[in-house]
Design brief:
Largest sheet: 6 strands, antiparallel
Order of helices and strands: HHHEEEEHEEHH
Strand order of the largest sheet: 1-2-3-4-6-5
Oligomer: single chain
Strand content: 15-25%
Number of helices: 6
Structural class: alpha+beta
Helix content: 40-55%
Number of domains: 2
Length: 214
């Protein structure tokens, strides 16, 4: 959404109130005024779009994940714990692009642990997961699968089909994270037995792709 520079004449008291509210919200004076005017005039801003997506994601994920307080319009974090000794935490960070093009944004998964064996299992799972996702997405004509695997992190870009409403986008992201979390936990709980479960889990992922492409 294009932005231009305009001059406005405002009362000092209004500017003071706007600045105080902008500080509380962690945004700029210009951005807050833009949002207020857009809402009053029924215009959709990137912040409104992202808020709608995250509100849907929060409503759907709240029963299964710990939803962290949002400190940014474009960023949201979900957390869950592993049924593993010391109960390490897994975080799912969703970062949306203000003006999505080919991609909506990205999801970053990270595990909080100092255990080298657990980090190795985490990385091993995502080597498998990347290959699996890329294979099925390529069949849909999406060959530009973008993902990076670290020792305790995984980041991938989310495709923008351009066909989903904001609410449907929130549902799709929640469905993807829930599917990913379920598969990851089953792998970490029983790495040796995971190949016997992989076919059923891949079937669930394909069903997700039939509804939403990310």
């Amino acid at each position: 959404m294009k932005k231009s520079i305009y001059s406005l004449v405002l009362m000092d008291d209004v500017v003071r109130a706007v600045d105080e509210q902008a500080y509380r919200l962690g945004t700029s004076r210009s951005n807050l005024i833009n949002q207020i005017l857009a809402q009053h005039l029924s215009c959709v801003t990137p912040e409104m779009r992202m808020r709608e997506i995250f509100d849907t994601l929060t409503a759907m994920a709240g029963g299964s994940f710990q939803v962290q307080e949002r400190r940014s319009d474009s960023l949201m974090t979900l957390r869950t714990a592993l049924a593993y000794k010391y109960r390490p935490t897994i975080s799912y960070k969703v970062e949306l692009d203000r003006e999505p093009g080919e991609y909506l944004g990205r999801v970053t998964v990270s595990i909080r642990t100092q255990s080298k064996p657990l980090m190795d299992l985490f990385s091993g799972f995502f080597v498998y997961r990347c290959a699996m996702e890329a294979k099925y997405l390529e069949r849909l004509g999406l060959a530009d699968y973008s993902a990076v695997i670290g020792s305790n992190t995984f980041t991938r870009r989310l495709f923008n089909s351009g066909e989903l409403s904001d609410e449907e986008t929130g549902e799709a992201i929640c469905g993807y994270i829930a599917d990913l979390d379920r598969s990851l936990k089953q792998y970490l709980a029983d790495p040796e037995g995971f190949p016997g479960k992989a076919a059923a889990l891949e079937s669930e992922y394909r069903k997700l792709l039939e509804r939403y492409v990310l």
